[in-house]
UniProtKB/TrEMBL annotation, chain A:
Subcellular location field: Cell membrane
Protein name in the entry: Sugar ABC transporter permease
One cellular-component annotation, GO: plasma membrane
CDD domains for the chain: TM_PBP2 (cd06261)
UniProt entry keywords in alphabetical sequence: Cell membrane, Membrane, Transmembrane, Transmembrane helix, Transport
Membership in a protein family: Belongs to the binding-protein-dependent transport system permease family.
Domain ABC transmembrane type-1: 70-259
PROSITE patterns assigned: ABC_TM1
Main subcellular localisation: membrane
Organism: Pontibacillus litoralis JSM 072002
BP GO annotations: transmembrane transport
Transmembrane residue ranges: 12-31, 69-93, 105-126, 138-159, 180-202, 236-259
Automatic annotation (TrEMBL), chain B:
Record's keyword annotation contains Nucleotide-binding: yes
Domain of life: Bacteria
GO molecular function: ABC-type ferric iron transporter activity; ATP binding; ATP hydrolysis activity
A Pfam entry, by short name: TOBE_2
Entry-linked PANTHER family: MALTODEXTRIN IMPORT ATP-BINDING PROTEIN MSMX, OSMOPROTECTIVE COMPOUNDS UPTAKE ATP-BINDING PROTEIN GGTA
InterPro entries linked: AAA+_ATPase (IPR003593), ABC_transporter-like_ATP-bd (IPR003439), ABC_transporter-like_CS (IPR017871), ABC_transpr_FbpC (IPR015853), ABC_transpr_MalK/UgpC-like (IPR047641), Mo/tungstate-bd_C_term_dom (IPR008995), NA-bd_OB-fold (IPR012340), P-loop_NTPase (IPR027417)
Alphabetically ordered keywords of this record: ATP-binding, Cell membrane, Membrane, Nucleotide-binding, Transport
Cellular component terms per the entry's GO annotation: ATP-binding cassette (ABC) transporter complex, substrate-binding subunit-containing
Organism: Pontibacillus litoralis JSM 072002
Domain ABC transporter: from-to ranges: 3-233
This protein's name: Sugar ABC transporter ATPase
TrEMBL record, chain C:
Similarity annotation: Belongs to the binding-protein-dependent transport system permease family.
Species this chain originates from: Pontibacillus litoralis JSM 072002
Subcellular location, record wording: Cell membrane
Predominant place of localization: membrane
Protein name in the entry: ABC transporter permease
């Protein structure tokens, strides 16, 4: 490509410079989160704290119930991911393996609704959830997110790639359809399911507007919602604020480092399919 | 357990894949479903398996009507062209799978699966995944998996067509060996006539969803019940020579062929004559049936094949390699009269009936 | 061959679909209709669910509302600020990453990292970087003799600050998609162009760019759509306010205000409907033009 136009070393320098810009907020966050208050406000900035003040983390959890927020986020993330996996597996199986009346129409309608942004659906959903009395409960934060058209679409494509003869073989082997789905399709679709689960975990963990609106009480807040509330409580204690932010960010960063392959695959697939 | 198909019809959207099939498959036999692609042979197999349900008609396993029984309840074993092994399971687990589905205890399932690997000579592959096996090995695993639950009926859907020529021959003999060893009823789908003729007790020839002929391999070859059957079996293919009713037979020299003379005279319609290349021999000028210039000559293994120009058509003949014939010469070919096939040109149906062959049913 | 659908297979099909459909109908499909109906509520009591009057009054009202106009203008400025910048940067970076260099995986990981991080949390980190007295950014600017800027308190700089965060956050996704797009381009095209004596720049212009155009187009549309939905960054950067003097008031923020702060469900729904129409239009453009682009491939 342009590699002769720009020498290799120029590329390295530019890419490294960009990489530093990408990493800087993370580095600065960690650095600040471990500083004593006087170092936080130092000019010129101190990059490496002279002493590591881990107590910023414990102090933040004392001022605001970050433990509770964390548990809420974990519960909501796990349950909505499990729910989505179940509904997705069943629906993708129906769309890829069962020929029923109205299948293509239903599928087209679902794909069509994908373009409606969730921000638009928020208001009627709020009304529905208050009618159900679910506002400020786990139910409101989990159940509406236990099905995803995108995930169904992704898994259906994967299922379509599994040869039909395999399902014939299984049936002849005395396997009911449901068992076939569970013992053959699901193990085979593991990479796709991991991708779907990871995208869901990231989305669910980071989601903000929905839990902001659907919760009132402190006990029901998720980490991002709790964090924005904390900014008012922490005021100018940036050490604490950065410690709290790190608590929200780091779990996903760790998951990302462990499972990068699957996440990239999912994002790319999502991108290329539209 | 005999298997009966009664008035079986299968329709996909608006296309008949199988039309009004009636036949019986005898217990313990290996029956081939033979025909060109799209003839309905695979659909028939799928109907036998229960994976497809017929649009109309009934299927009996013995006295039991199984038409509406699901595949998983039919107690059958099936082997697929693509082997259809579970990619995520080891060879042993693949073979155990049907037993586990029947809730056979793990220990017993393992023992039976291991016995199966012995029968199929794949003991040493037990722990491999299907992806690590060759085509032939995969096929052995597939057969083992199909047989492990001791089914009453074994169905094989073009099981050899993904294998190379040498392996195909080996697996063909292997399938026959096992089928006879355990005495299972088996139905074998193939488009390869040689395969069908060599392996089976009976051959069921199909075309356009209709059974053309159901008979023993030898009688199907020797007494094809119509022009299609005659053409489909045999390699190189049968020579078909059309004669016009009431006209002098310029292509044929009927001097010593009294039976043919009589038949052509007796029939009040156009007749097509079928001559298999391997039945033709070089004869004297007096006793020949057809003659013409040799336009091509090649040696195929132990035989020599020649092509002889017979007016506007060519006739193939397999002749003894010692015959002193050269391209360009005129050659005289004769045939034993009982080896000549006669067909109604219009309908394609065989004119003289012989013992052993039959049309629909058997 | 596919088996014809039967009554039995239909029953089974819907049984498998039931859990997903139950959720999707309740929380995705029904609200689409409901949202439109609610935008017509001109007189409505949320607590009793009673609707006293219907009409297009809400639409008239929001279009007369100067704040809504500000929100639309701000959103458009935001999109214009983010999308071209983000596309150009991610194109350059992905071209670099696609060339034969070392540490490609490590670079990719780093650029992609912001994608998985919480918008809210990282925006709070950015608000610290934007800090007037002790922020890193003003410190760096001081190296070049630039006076401190009140990024988050000066209405003039609120939008640039928001754009910086959004470009930084969205770069990874765009790079990922473009890398995938670049990988689909057959090496043979480059070899052919090279044999024809095309210069590097020429090869980029006549091979890479046209062959990547479907991807670029897709990324642009997705970025525009996402740009119209911006909210979390604003809420976190400006501490639960739409920027100083409404300088970062966007459409979704406007909806949020009407809905959650003022409990004007009808107005909020009308604004949401306008947002939907805008996004719908871009989706249609993508579908129509996207099909055309496919022919180039």
């Amino acid at each position: 490509m342009r590699k002769e136009a720009l020498s290799k070393s120029t590329i390295y320098i530019l890419l490294s410079f960009g990489a530093i810009l990408m990493l800087l907020p993370f580095i600065w966050m960690i650095s600040t989160s471990l500083k004593a208050p006087n170092e936080v406000m130092a000019l010129p900035p101190v990059w490496i704290p002279s002493e590591l003040h881990w107590e910023n983390y414990t102090e933040a959890t004392e001022i605001a119930p970050f433990g509770r927020y964390f548990v809420n986020s974990v519960i909501i993330t796990i349950l909505s991911t499990l729910g989505e996996l179940i509904t997705t597996i069943l629906a993708a199986y129906a769309f890829s393996r069962i020929n029923f009346y109205g299948r293509d129409v239903v599928f087209a309608i679902l794909l069509g609704t994908m373009m409606v942004p969730s921000e638009v659906l928020m208001i009627p959903n709020f009304v529905t959830l208050s009618d159900l009395g679910w506002i400020d409960t786990y139910k409101a934060l989990i159940i509406p997110w236990t099905a995803s058209i995108f995930a169904i679409f992704l898994l259906r494509q994967f299922f379509l790639g599994i040869p039909k003869e395999l399902s014939y073989a299984a049936k002849v082997d005395g396997c009911s359809e449901f068992k076939f789905l569970w013992y053959v399709m699901v193990p085979l679709a593991k990479p796709a399911l991991i991708t779907i689960a990871l995208l869901k975990i990231i989305g669910s963990w980071n989601s903000f507007l929905w839990p902001l609106i659907m919760t009132n009480s402190t006990e029901m807040r998720t980490l991002p919602v709790g964090l924005t509330a904390f900014t008012t409580e922490a005021g100018i204690q940036y050490g604490l604020l950065m410690a709290a932010s790190a608590m929200v960010i780091l779990p996903m960063v760790i998951i990302f480092f462990l499972m990068q392959k699957y996440i990239v695959a999912g994002v790319t697939r999502a991108g290329l399919k539209g | 357990m005999d298997i009966h198909l009664r008035n079986i019809t299968m329709k996909f959207q608006d296309v008949y894949a199988v039309q009004n099939i009636n036949t019986t498959i005898k217990s313990g036999q290996l029956v081939s479903l033979l025909g060109p692609s799209g003839c309905g042979k695979s659909t028939t197999l799928m109907l036998l398996s229960g994976l497809y349900k017929p649009t109309s008609g009934d299927i009996y396993f013995g006295d039991k009507n199984v038409t509406n029984m699901e595949a998983e309840d039919r107690k059958i074993g099936m082997v697929f062209q693509s082997y259809a092994l579970y990619p995520h399971l080891s060879v042993l687990k693949n073979i155990m799978f049907p037993l586990r589905m029947e809730k056979v205890p793990k220990k017993e399932a393992k023992e039976r699966a291991q016995a199966m690997t012995k029968l199929m000579h794949i003991e040493h592959l037990q722990d491999r995944k299907p992806g690590q096996l060759s085509g032939g090995q995969q096929q052995r695993v597939a057969i083992a998996r199909a047989l492990v639950k001791e089914p009453k009926l074994l169905l094989l859907d073009e099981p050899l067509s993904n294998l190379d020529a040498r392996l195909r021959l080996e697996m063909r003999e292997e399938i026959r060996r096992i089928q006879q060893e355990i005495g299972i009823t088996a139905v074998f789908v193939t488009h390869d006539q040689e395969e069908a003729l060599s392996i089976s007790d009976h051959v069921l020839l199909m075309k356009d969803g209709v059974i053309q002929q159901h008979s023993k391999p030898q009688s199907m070859y020797r007494y094809p019940c119509n022009r299609f059957a005659a053409k489909f079996l045999g390699n190189p293919p049968i020579n078909l020579i059309e004669t016009k009713h009431g006209q002098t037979q310029e292509k044929l020299h009927l001097h010593t062929y009294n039976q043919t003379k009589q038949i052509l005279a007796a029939e009040q319609r156009d007749v097509t004559i079928g001559l298999r290349p391997e039945d033709l021999y070089v004869s004297s000028k007096e006793n020949h049936l057809i003659s013409g210039q040799v336009i091509h000559m090649e040696t195929i293994g132990r035989d020599t094949m020649i092509r002889v120009q017979l007016q506007e058509e060519t006739v193939r003949a397999l002749i003894h390699p010692d015959a002193t014939i050269q391209v360009g010469q005129t050659c005289y070919l004769g045939i034993k009269e009982e080896n000549i096939h006669y067909f109604n040109t219009e309908t394609g149906i065989r004119l003289t009936s012989h013992e052993g062959g039959s049309g629909n049913g058997s | 061959m596919d088996l014809n659908p039967t009554k039995k297979s239909t029953l089974k099909g819907y049984l498998y679909l039931l859990p997903a459909l139950l959720i999707l109908i309740t929380f995705n499909i029904y609200p689409i209709i409901k949202s439109f109906v609610m935008s017509l509520y001109t007189d409505f009591d949320f607590f009793t669910g009673e609707v006293f009057a219907y009409g297009f009054g809400n639409f008239v009202e929001i279009f007369q509302d100067p704040n809504f106009r500000i929100a639309i203008v701000n959103t458009v400025i935001f999109v214009i600020g983010v999308v071209p910048l983000s596309i150009v940067l991610s194109l350059i970076i992905s071209l670099f990453l696609n060339s034969k260099i070392k540490f490609r995986g490590a670079f990719r990981t780093i650029y992609f990292l912001p994608y998985v991080t919480s918008v809210v949390a990282i925006s709070i980190v950015w608000s610290w970087i934007f800090h007037y007295d002790y922020g890193l950014l003003n410190y760096f600017l001081s190296w070049f003799g630039i006076d401190p800027i009140a990024w988050l308190r000066d209405p003039q700089y609120a939008m640039p600050a928001l754009i910086i965060v959004s470009v930084w956050k969205g770069l990874g996704f765009n790079i990922m998609i473009m890398l995938a797009g670049l990988q689909t381009i057959d090496e043979q095209y480059y070899l052919a162009a090279k044999v024809d004596g095309a210069s590097a720049w020429h090869r980029f212009k006549s091979v890479t760019l046209p062959l990547l155009s479907p991807t670029l187009f897709f990324v642009s549309i997705i970025s525009i759509i996402n740009g119209f939905k911006v909210f979390d960054e604003i809420f976190a950067l400006f501490d639960g306010r739409p920027g100083p003097g409404n300088s970062a008031l966007t459409v979704v923020y406007y909806i949020y205000q009407k809905f959650y702060e003022e409990w004007q469900f009808g107005l909020a729904s009308a604004a949401a409907f306008v947002l939907f129409i805008i996004i719908f239009l871009f989706t249609i453009i993508q579908l129509v033009l996207g099909k055309k682009f496919v022919h180039y491939n």
